[in-house]
Specification:
With about 190 residues, the protein is an alpha/beta fold. The protein has a single domain, classed as P-loop containing nucleotide triphosphate hydrolases (Rossmann fold). A 5-stranded parallel beta sheet has the order 2-3-1-4-5, sandwiched between helices. α2 packs across α3. The longest helix is centred in the C-terminal third of the chain and has 24 residues. It binds adenosine monophosphate. The site of adenosine monophosphate has 17 residues, from α2, α3 and α4.
Length: about 190
């Protein structure tokens, strides 16, 4: 099972990715978490990524692709993955879906966790800590999602690979809805 979770900050994509990873026994690959690990180890990639992440901007796509490529390829050959946060733009989606490694590598289903902007802002502010999570940064991250990631949803929709799920529901209900949708779409 090769699934991508798409959702704005605060949509619960990390939580759902972890639950699906456990359910299917495939790795949860979170681009944000891998970037944060690079940042805390102060690797060259981490140092470059920090300024973007701290502002709530997207890190250059090539860097994310380079960091994740091997891990995603390996997972794809070993039974699948739950991708969380990558791909996040049309260009990144093209890299994954039109990759020379072909259809054994590509995302089968892109699950979109749909939550209203009001609810997202409420959730993000309630867990905000310190300057990085200030209202301005939160609003900027939501704007970046609308500008760069919303168009990617259309890319998956045109390919018949998009599954929208109401993610304003409680965590367990969201997982149940995702599993139900996946069961109708995939024999594996
Ligand atoms: P996340 O934990 O998925 O919200 O990611 C945290 C931050 O990491 C984002 O706000 C971006 O700055 C950066 N990031 C994560 N994934 C990507 C990606 N696929 N492309 C560019 N930047 C990313």
């Amino acid at each position: 099972m090769r699934v991508l979770l798409v959702g704005a900050p605060g949509s619960g994509k990390g939580t759902q990715a972890a639950r699906l990873s456990e359910h299917f026994g495939v790795p949860h690959i979170s681009s944000g978490q891998i970037l944060r690990e690079h940042m805390s180890r102060e690797t060259p990639e981490g140092k470059e990524a920090a300024e973007y992440v701290d502002r709530g901007d997207l890190v250059p796509g090539e860097m994310v692709q380079e960091i994740l490529h091997e891990q995603v390829c390996r997972a794809a050959t070993e039974g699948g993955y739950i991708l969380d946060g990558f791909p996040r733009t049309i260009r990144q989606a093209e890299f994954v879906q039109l990759h020379p490694a072909g259809s054994d590598f590509a995302v089968q289903v892109a699950v979109f966790l749909s939550v209203s902007n009001e609810e997202l802002t409420r959730r993000l502010l309630s867990r905000a800590r310190g300057v990085d999570d200030s209202r301005a940064v939160i609003e900027h991250r939501l704007q970046v999602f609308d500008e760069h990631t919303t168009p990617m949803l259309e890319f998956f929709e045109r390919r018949g690979e998009l599954v929208p799920v109401d993610a304003a529901q409680p965590v367990e209900s969201v997982t149940a809805s995702i599993l139900q949708q996946l069961a109708t779409r995939s024999p594996s």
